[in-house]
Amino acid sequence: MKTFTTRTLSLPDWLDNFGIGAACSGGQLERALTALEAWVSFHPDSDPCTSSSATSATQYKANRRRQAPLPVSDAPPAWSAQAAVSNILYETPLPSTAPPKRHVLNCLVQNEPGVLSRVSGILAARGFNIDSLVVCSTEVDDLSRMTIVLTGQDGVVEQARRQLEDLVPVWAVLDYTQAPLVQRELLLAKINILGPEYFEELLAHHREITAVDPASEVDSIAESNPSLEEASGDFHPSRLVASQALRHKHEHLKSITYFTHQFGGKVLDISTNSCIVEVSAKPSRIDSFLKLISPFGILESARTGLMALPRSPLYGPSEDTHSVKEADEIVDASQLPPG
After folding, report:
1. Helix, strand, or coil here: 190?
2. pLDDT tens digits, residue range 237-278?
3. 57 in any annotated domain
4. Which of 105, 162, 213, 235 is deepest in the core (most CB within 10 A)?
5. Domain count, the chain
């Protein structure tokens, strides 16, 4: 047997010292395991697989634990067409039954031609009816803000929002539906000040004029051409006295002005038979104002649509410092007299 120093021998030399070659078989297997245990006991800080020989990689792969093979998947069961269709129908989610609600979308878009048509085209393709659309340039060059109000289900509106955001000239699309907003809408309305009776008769007379045959109308104009004052008298068949009609006008104008001021608006123009008022408020108050003044007779009205900005958070002291304490927290019941 060879003479060796235990601290300097490598694993191949150690096996060779025991008379074991690279390939061990039969009775040499037990001797190989004994030699390996002895070498590890003399080299506790060394890895038996680390060696500088040419077979180091082979020894490493042979001694390392190999991963378990992947499980063999069974063949899928043979489904009939009826079973497959039943499974597909069972796994298909039911359509949403949530009622459609009002959504407010705020689009930040590039200020260039054709953006409005592309945005409205996408919404129209999805079947949305736009309740309100306001677009205008901002304080930033080449940037416009577009406020869209539409009604639909949450999932469908979210898909439309993402599709709008994919457009090239669109910077971002924000959904302000659940956010606290400051909403404003401007209304211009021309209101009759002669009273509802005169308004109804005026509309009836206007329908009679528009229903006249064009040929007979030309003949009537050729026969008689009344002056403007005479024609205006035909619009008021009741034939009120001038002073009485004047008092009615001022009373109606006073009532219209009062209602307008109560809604934070103002009267912009006053003419002989009508006045123009301006009201800026949230959409629900605009609707209430229109219902309130409709008995006087609305000749014309124009609304700008909804404009909205999100409210900023209010930072201040915590609510615990200002919370009102209950009586049980202030008074100790154990200190009270009995009864």
Report:
1. strand
2. 456 677 777 888 888 899 999 999 999 999 999 988 889 999
3. no
4. 105
5. 2
Q: Say if residues 30 and 43 touch (Cβ distance below 8 Å).
A: no
**What distance in Å separates the CA atoms of residue 300 and residue 294, rounded to the nearest whole number?**
11
Domain that holds residue 150: 102-179
Say if strands 298-303 and 266-270 run parallel, antiparallel, or are unpaired: unpaired
Is residue 339 situated within a structural domain? no
Would you say 127 and 176 are in contact if contact means Cβ atoms under 8 Å apart?
Answer: no
**Range with the lowest mean pLDDT among 4-18, 143-157, 175-189, 303-317?**
4-18
Residues 171 and 282 in one domain: no
Q: Are 109 and 115 a contacting pair, CB within 8 Å?
A: yes
The pLDDT tens digits of the residues spanning 277-331 come to 999 999 999 999 999 999 888 888 999 999 999 988 877 666 554 555 555 556 5
Say whether both 202 and 295 belong to one domain.
yes
Task: Decide: residue 43, CB within 10 A, 0-12 exposed, 13-18 middle, 19+ buried.
Answer: middle
Instruction: Report the alpha-carbon distance of residue 171 to residue 119 in Å, rounded.
Output: 13
Other Cβ atoms closer than 10 A to 138? 11
Contact 300, 166 (CB under 8 A): no
* CA dihedral of 224, 226, 230, 236, whole degrees rounded to 10: 60
The two tokens of residue 126 are 């999805």
Which pair of tokens denotes residue 106? 């705020």
In a domain, 81, yes or no: no
Q: 169: how many CB neighbours lie within 10 A of its CB?
A: 16
For residues 15 and 227, what is the distance between their CA atoms, to the nearest angstrom?
A: 133
